[in-house]
Each structure stands twice: as C-alpha cells, then as structure tokens.
Amino acid sequence: MTETVGSxxxxxxxxxxxxxxxxxxxxxxxxxxxxxxDEVGWERRxxxxxxxxxxxxxxxxxGVEFPDSWSLNAVNIVTSKYFRGAVGTEERESSLRQxxxxxxKTYVGAGVEQGYFATDADAEVFEHELTWMLLxxxxxxxxxxxxxxxxxxxxxxxxxxxxxVDDTMESILDWYKEEGLIFKGGSGSGLNLSRIRSSKELxxxxxxxxxxxSFMRGADASAGTIKSGGATRRAAKMVVLDIDHxxxxxxxxxxxxxxxxxxxxxxxxxxxxxxxxxxxxxxYQNANNxxxxxxxxxxxxxxxxxxGMRARTxxxxxxxxxxxxxxxxxxxxxxxxxxPGIQYDGTINDWHTSPETGRITASNPCSEYxxxxxxxxxxxxxxxxxFLRDDQTFDAEVFQKAVEFVITAMDISICFADFPTESIGxxxxxxxxxxxxxxxxxxxxxxxxxxxxxxxxxxLAAAVTSLMTGTAYKRSAEMAGAVGAYDxxxxxxxxxxxxxxxxxxxxxLVRTYHHNDVAVHRQATQVWQDCLEIGDRNGWRNAQASVLxxxxxxxLMMDCDTTGIEPDLALVKFxxxxxxxxxxxxxxxxxxxxHSLGYQEEQVEAVVEYIAEHGHVIxxxxxxxxxxxxxxxxxxxxxxxxxxxxxxMAAAQPFLSGAISKTVNMPESASIxxxxxxxFEGWRLGLKALAIYRDNCKVGxxxxxxxxxxxxxxxTSDKQVDKPVEYKPIRKRLPKKRPSETxxxxxxxxxxxxxxxxxxxxxxxxxxxxxxxxxxxxxxxMDAFSMSISVGLQYGIPLExxxxxxxxxxxxxxxxxxxxxxxxxxxxxxxxxxxxxxDYLPYEKRAQLGIFTIExxxxxxxxxxxxxDVDLDxxxxxxxxxxxxxxxxxxxxxxxxTHVGSSTELLELRLGKAADAPLCMTCGxxxxxxxxxxxxxxxxxxxxxx
Length: 946
Known about the structure:
Elements: E1 42-50, E2 57-67, H1 72-81, H2 96-113, H3 120-135, E3 139-141, H4 143-148, E4 160-162, H5 169-184, E5 188-192, H6 212-225, E6 237-242, H7 248-267, E7 288-293, H8 295-303, E8 306-310, E9 317-322, H9 323-337, E10 341-344, H10 345-350, E11 375-383, H11 396-416, H12 422-431, E12 434-439, H13 441-447, H14 455-483, H15 489-508, H16 515-538, H17 553-557, E13 572-576, E14 582-586, H18 589-596, H19 601-614, H20 642-652, E15 663-666, H21 672-684, E16 689-694, H22 707-720, E17 740-747, E18 750-758, E19 764-771, H23 777-794, H24 799-806, E20 815-819, E21 822-825, H25 828-840, H26 843-849, H27 854-862, H28 872-876, H29 886-892, H30 903-911, E22 928-930, E23 933-935
Parallel strand pairs: 4-5, 5-6, 6-7, 7-10, 11-12, 15-16
Antiparallel strand pairs: 1-2, 3-11, 4-11, 8-9, 10-16, 13-14, 17-18, 18-19, 20-21, 22-23
Helix pairs in contact: 2-3, 2-11, 3-11, 5-6, 7-9, 9-21, 11-14, 13-18, 14-16, 14-20, 15-16, 18-19, 24-25
C-alpha cells in the first residue's frame, strides 16, 4: 500500500515567509489509470418515499443511478435530501456521480487555486481519492456541503455557529436577526447570555434591568416562527448562562416550570404534543439550555461551600448561595424536563488553542463545537467500520491516510465558503475551525468483541480518537507549511502548542488491553510526535480539528449502524426492502462479534436465530454469560448503565478539539441524586459538556403510539368479536322509545344544547345539536352534522373514533365553557365530543384519549388513581395503551407488524413500552436518538443542526 506524502518541501517552516511548495499526494484507495466510477457496479432505482402512517407520497424521483452496494435507505435519503434541481426538470440531478462530482470538483478546483497541491497530478490523485471514499461510504461531509457546494446558492459549508450578545439593546436585536438568518438557512446556533445584566441590577436611567431570561422569550418566539431551512422541523439553538449570573435561578427553572404548565394543559385536554395545536403557547421550547459551571463552583459543591452571584456591570457579589443547593436545583430541573444541561467552563478553556483572542463561552446546539464567539465549524465524519479488516483488526494506517485526505478537503472549503454574517465569516477565515469526527463506534466495538462499557472498549475508542485528532493536526501543520498557518496563530502560538502537548500527554496515559487498541495506540503515539515536531516548525493551519457530532443524516448516507459515539440502539433492527415492504433483521454486527469471540458457525447461527426471536441474548443457546455485555445496547433487555455512557465520553474527550454530542439516557426510576452524580462525575472525568434525559420526563412530544398501533389494536379486537360480514355493515336502529339526556352548554359565549339518545343497553346511538337561530345556516349545518354522526353510530362506527377525530378541532366560537370537566374548548365540536367521551366511554378508553373529569385529574395529581388496574404512567406516555398480554404475544411473533416504521417502533413492540422519541414531522416515522438530537430513519430528517 502506498503512503500519502504530506510534508511540504520548500521554506524552512516559518509560515508566511519564503517560497512554499504544495502538498504531494500518493494513491491509497485508487488505481492509476482507472477512474473510481469504473470500479463499481451501477443500477437504476425508483425512489418513492411515503408517509407510512397515511400512505401519502412525500417525494418521488424515478430512475436514479447509484452503486448496487448502496442500501435502499441511503439511496432514498441522498436522492430526496441532496440532489439539487427541481424534480421533473432536466436540471435535476439523477445520479450519485453528479452529486459527488459537483462537490469534489469544487473542492479540488479551490485547492489548486489556493496552492494546496504541488502539481496538477497531485490534484488529480486527490480528486480520485476523495471520490473513491465518498463512493464507498468511507466518509461524508456534513449536510450543508451537499446542499450548497457547486450550486448557484451561497456556498455555505458549516452547520454549527456560535453567536455573541452584549448588554445593549442594539446587540440584543442583532442577536434576534442573526439567529433568524441562520435558522432560515437550515442551520443552528448557540450563544451565552451572561453579558446581559441581571434583573437585580439597575439601568443607567435608574430603572431595573429586564434580565436575560426575559429576552429569551423573544428569541424563542422567533425560533418557533422560522421553520429551519423552510422545512417543518423547528430551529436548533443553544442558550448558555454562567453559574455566577444573578438570574441563574430563574434560568434554571424556565423549562421545568413550563413543563408543569404543559402537564396542566394536557390534563385540561389541550393538544401539547410536539407540533400540536396548543404547544405554541408554551415558552422556551425551541432551545437547549445549559449552565456554564466554573471549577470554583464545582469545588464549592464538593466541599459544601458558599458561592457568590456576581453583577454583570462591576463584578461585585450580589448575593451568596450554598453551592450544593444551587447544584441540586440544576439536577432537579434536569430530572423534571432534561434541561438545563451542563458545560464545564474550566475544562473547556483549559483546552483552548486561542486563549489570547478570547474565551470560549458557548457551543453550537448539539454541544460538540466550542470555540470563539461569532464563529462556525464545518464537519465531516468517517465510517469506522470501513477500516475493520476481515480478521477483525482495525487498519490504523489506512485510517490515518483517510483522515489526511478528509481534513485537507475540509480546510480547502473555508477558502471558498460563504457565511451568514460578516463577523462569523471573518472569525472562521482567521481561525479555520474544523470538526472531523466519526460514526459507527458502537458497531466497531461490538464487532471486535468489546463491550461498550468496558476498559477494552474505552481503550480502543480512546486510541482511535487520538489517532484521528493527531493525524488531523499533523496534516494541519503540514498545510501550514504549504499555505500558511491560521491568521490568529501568531498571537496564540504558545497556547496552541500547550494544548497540542496536552493531547500528546493524554495519549501517553492510555492503557491498552487488546491487539487492536495496542496497534492503533502505537500508531497514534508516532503521529503525535510528528505533529509536535512539524507544528513547532510550521505552526498549524487550523485552530480546531475534531469534534464528535451526531452524524444523523450523513450516518444514514454511509449506511452506518450506529451514530457518532453512540452504542447500538438494539440488536434487532427494522430494514426497508428494495421491492417494497420491510423486515426485521439481526444487526449484521452480531455475527462478526460472535466470530471475534471464537464461536463456531453453528453456534453463531443458533444465537442469531435466538436474537431474531427474542430480541436479546439472555439465555441464548451456547452463548457464555460473560459475553452478554458485548451485546448490551442503548435500549432493550440489557441496556447500558448511564455511567457507562459517561465513562465512554471521558475516554474520548482528551483527544478532541471540541466536545461530544451525546445525551446520557436515564431510566424513569432515576432519582435527582442520580442526576447530581452524573453531572459531578462529568466534571471529575474531564468532560466539556453533558446532558441527561430521564425517560418520560417530558410531556410535550408524541410517544409510542401512532395510527399503526391503532389499526393493530382494532384488528385484534375484530378477532375477538363475532361480527357480521365486514364488507356489508348492518344498521342497528334505535327503538321507538329510548333513554336520552339533554345538556345545555356555553362555549366562548355561544349557547347551545346537546341531545343524546342511547340504546337500552346504554350505548350511544344518536345526537342532536341545537346551535344558532332556527333557519340559520349554522343551525342547518349542525342538523346535517348530527344526522351524519347518528347514522354512523348506528352502523357501528365506534364513538372513540369520532372523539379522536373531532377533539382539538379549532374554530370559532372557542374559549371558556360553563362545564367544570371541560373548562376550555378549541371549538364547539371539541367540547361536544369531549363531553360525550366523559358521559359514554369507560375510564380506560378515556385515559387513552387523555380525557378526564376534574375529580380524576385531581386524583392523578394527588397520586390517588381511580383504579389499580390502570397504569396511568403508561397512559401518559402513549396515545393508545396495549393490553397486558401484548408484549408476550409479540415475542412469539416472527414477523414484524406491517405498521412498524422504524427500528425504534420495532423495539417498542419488543419491549412492550413506549420510547421517548418524537415522530418525524416530514414522514411520520418514529425517530431514534442521535447524539443529543433525534434522527429519522425514514427520510433522514434530524431535530438538530447537522
């Protein structure tokens, strides 16, 4: 195998002086005289993407060209997300060749123009190598590159932005404007509000300041109004406040207090699901909140000491608090609603390469990019499984060469990139922050026989991360010799060198356990030595080089099993088939792991068959219990403990320029003290940022159930009831004399009457609504509506079906009612069907619909549930609950429910309980966790900024 020659020839190494010679590049993946496109088989496919819940077509493009090795999901996502041009026109891209050429040729052309390559031949080799790696899913740039590069749009290549705001109204209004522009472009931003004076301080005019939390309301409303990138998902943003800000108490509780409001609204019958009609009335829901804690504060927590809140104007102590009380308040708020997260200011700035220019005060929305205010970072991630040989050894040498190619391309992009604001563009060009990372770590660890939460697993992760960042900075130093160090380097040279030495020293402390991590660590050690030597001579081209991003959509593009630093979601996953339909499959990593652990082919087949049937490895035939932990996943029968996630983050963090996008999931039974322990250990282990999510702590998002489960439940019910021939419904008429009741009501000042007639066995059979003056249009419409509903009821349409359709329907008149059980109604129909539910449906069915009497709501609040047979916690977390026997029945089923739309929903069927993940607003698929965001396996949409 040939070696990439990156050391520049020419000047003595001082950036900015003398003649320089560009980089010389040798082939690694490609063959001279053979274009990468000629080495693969191509095929034409039709891409038709539907909303699996209602069958509507979201996207359609037929005859697209892709390599035959690409999965259906990767083809669908790349075609729908990244191909440019109007669908149905000649300008529309229709082949992966066009997409890759559009991006790669732009990069190479800019590299030639800027003097990166020694000769045209080196540029051609570089072009072929990049093309080969993209074609074979070895790496991917972040989404903005695929959206914008090589098009007539602005050449924005960054997904992550950090803004700044000062204590002036002009700056605050600029903040609103700049955020809006970033959201419009489909990206996300973060900033620190700590410069804004607190509500406990005076204005120059003598009045009292509003405080940063009050200004957050305006920014939150703006973010909720501007759909990110013109799409349906909300904007992604991060808001940070320092722990010594006098308003930190109010900031900590902003979202937890709103969560209490959400629960009250839900219990009153309002639609407060994510994207629901009434969620817009809830504040602060469009941002992730984080507290920036100092080492001084954490030491005060450790010693149970006092801590001072400081004025923003003169730094004086406004008040003194007990540090542990404030820390407990943070943990309680996070326990209640997952916010705020925590950022460790001391660690962040101790690893800052440009300290003389300014401190690091904030992060991007997903918390992996941290650097100067008014800056940006473009990302790219490598697929680690592409470097695992057939003998289960990691190819460290090829991985190093791949990193050199990718980091070079990423730096070139800054030369031609556009930015949303002038200040962001200026800072990015002067410091050239990059964010190389990886995906598929969880799959790599399992395939090589390592448990995610093990010393061996952490050693391999640390070694791979160290090699990646060391190689990136080594190449950065080589590029500095070829085209110059970053503009801010001269001022920050001592600080930058200090951080490089810290990385190298951390590498020396890695303890190895296995031949894989030994080989990778040995390679990393040599790379860091070279990096320090070349960097001392040339400086570095980039202030930052690496982060671990969520790798959401691009992870699907690369057909990765796991995203970022995450473990596998579950052992059995959902897979779409090219010919239509879907199936469940055991993760392909499982057989590789079993072979790596020494099992024979017959044993492997038996274990895989057992996993396919049961979804876990417990009691699998022939599998030794000491190997169970290799197959532990994020969810399932054997899920990784929260501290296992923290320890993995701690293993990788010393080898990253930025931080890690990851949420530590905690069980619903976790206590506030458990959250405190996670937050404290994050500081002690040297993390830069941390966020937690406790299962079912949030109300404002749709949980387990969709229409698919409704249909499943209905079909199960059909089997249990001996019904007439289904294709010919029979009308069951009411007797001449039947029981009935009349209810008078008022909705938003409009008076009316509801007459409900029943069958003798107490089933509702007809309704009549009197509303409006006799002979008016409204009265006539209501008469016709009543007759339609009555006939439907008599033909057997369940009342709960009508209620699910008409509750939350919104039109005038609406507002307050005179009914104590339904205090607010969004329309007359909303009120009428809630009232009918209360009068005619049993408690269990009403609980599924979220409709309760005032006595029942009070009982829930007091913990005195009406029935021991009803699990209200499950009712709260799902639209439709399942019967107690459903999980056992599903375990016996071999085939996937045809209404399952993602791996998360498949896992829910296995576990028999809901997963806390939102439904995709584009295609309706249940999303899955991806770093600190969520990812849709159906269409590639994400809830974050990548």
